[in-house]
Prior knowledge:
Layout: H1 2-5, H2 25-46, H3 60-65, H4 67-77, H5 84-94, H6 110-113, H7 117-120, H8 123-132, H9 134-139
Helix pairs in contact: 2-8
Amino acid sequence: GSINSRMGTFQRFFPGDVTTLNFTAAEVGAAARVICAERERLVKGLTHFNSAERIITFKYEDLAEDPLSSATQLFSQLRLKLNKHVYNYIIESSRAISTESGGYDTKKQSKAVYNKWQSTMDRAHLAAATTSCYKLLETLGYSHQIP
């Protein structure tokens, strides 16, 4: 999802309006290799902080599937109280009526849109990106099987 939802990243490789370009699977794979290699270096850098007390990890899918539970866990790990304003914001912003996924929408039905890319991304592009990023996907606990 990260690769498809952040097409602006492709501008580093393909100047111009990336929303109107038709990428080949090879181009998607090449860009994905670079993007995932950068993310792999970031993840490796975090291994210096391998203490469970210093790093909090969770998957975006878990956050989108159950934002309130994810926020509650996060606040608990940070030893913070989830106040009513934050609670209400999470409820309001994650259970909106819209099921469309705008680039920077802050209010949408998170359950309905977080994996929409799986049905809209070209299968050849998805295969190229998944193959190019298999190490990172495994490191982060994801299957590199095409959904």
